[in-house]
Amino acid sequence: MNLARAGFYSAIGTAARLLAGLVVIKLVAWFAGPEGVGRLGQFMSLMSLLAVLAGGGISAGIVKYVAEYRGDPQRLSRLLAAALSYALCASCLMGLAALVFSRQLAIWILGDASFESLIRILALAQLGIAAVNYVLAVINGFMDVRRLAFIQVIGSVLGIAMAAWLARRFQLYGALLALVLGQLAWLAVALPSWWRSPYFRQSLPRLRFDREMNGRLAAFSLMTISSAVLPPLVNIAVRDHLALRFGWQEVGNWQAVSKVSDAYLLFLTAAINIYYLPKLASISERGALVGELRNAYRHILPAVIVLAALVYVARSWVTRILFSTDFTTAEALYAPQLIGDVVKIASFVLSYVMLAKAMTRLFVVSEIAFGLSYLLLVYLCTAHFGLVGAMYAFAINYVGYLLFNLLVVRHYLGGLRT
């Protein structure tokens, strides 16, 4: 598989996911305005947090080791059995915790105890979400981008239909409920698709504790949890700070611009994840690794610059189409956010070296350090520049992260054989 083919199929799957997400945002904007979009962001952060914890945060580990072991059936079988048991235990624990604290989570995240039932449904869905993550990671590890795109497209279509129906009947509550049930709809597509793949074996989906494999997966739990759990928690803290300082109306404007960034960057981050994680994991020579990184920058960096420029030029149109005329004040927030997006993608390409080579301690420390530095920068910049200061904080933080990753990759390459 080459980057062009991976990018093509990744773009198809990403477009479907993007459309599904934008439909939900549009429905919430219609029914609840900027305040509803702000609360939607809070719930999506909680979903992201629980989705990662549901399977123990081992998706990246499954991708890496499937890519390494696909030529070794015995080790592959051990890995997948260990990963399934690991994900099952983690999802049960997380689902139980979410059930016990459902009322507190509803009040903390959504500011309304009436959403407790929604949190309970999300808690019960943890097993299904963990199963989806497991299957998609296995398919990604085999670099089967065509099958992965098929699952994403069909799953997203089901999610859109569900969102339209539930939002019409239950408005904001229905739109949020559709986000949860839409994840389970993916499972109905992913499982049959995996079973029909040429690399599926009846012996693969078993439960077994394996000390060696569980130890390797645990290292990826730490890395994935730090990168996927900390950002939602930081974003929740940022929203709470912005709401306290500027009100939920302005949180909605900030959230709208952030969601536009998430939407168009999804095409690039998905391609990086699908192609570069298994690819970098399988490379051990310095020259080959340098070549892959240069190839990434030749293709990905120009793409993000062009996309960011197009979004900036069309920002008024994009804001009105995706949201409503109530969000016109958000247009002033785009410039620093889009600059930060370019730097973010530049840093992500390099950060995947840490993930692919299992630099656990360094990766976790960097995620914590830059998560906290972003929160601190938000406090400082919003105090001096107002709401747009949150965008300045985003851009400045990723400049620091890019410089850090340059140092890490340079040091790692120095220790490889040519």
How would you describe what is shown here?
Keywords: Cell membrane, Membrane, Transmembrane, Transmembrane helix. It is a multi-pass membrane protein. One of its GO terms (cellular component) is plasma membrane. This is O-antigen translocase. It is found in: Cell membrane. The protein is 85% helix and 0% strand. It is mostly helical and 418 residues long. The chain has one domain (3-414). The chain is globular and about 55 Å long. The mean pLDDT is 83.
Q: What secondary-structure arrangement, pairings included, does this model have?
A:
Layout: H1 3-54, H2 59-69, H3 73-100, H4 102-110, H5 116-124, H6 126-141, H7 145-195, H8 211-228, H9 230-246, H10 248-281, H11 286-313, H12 315-322, H13 334-356, H14 360-385, H15 389-414
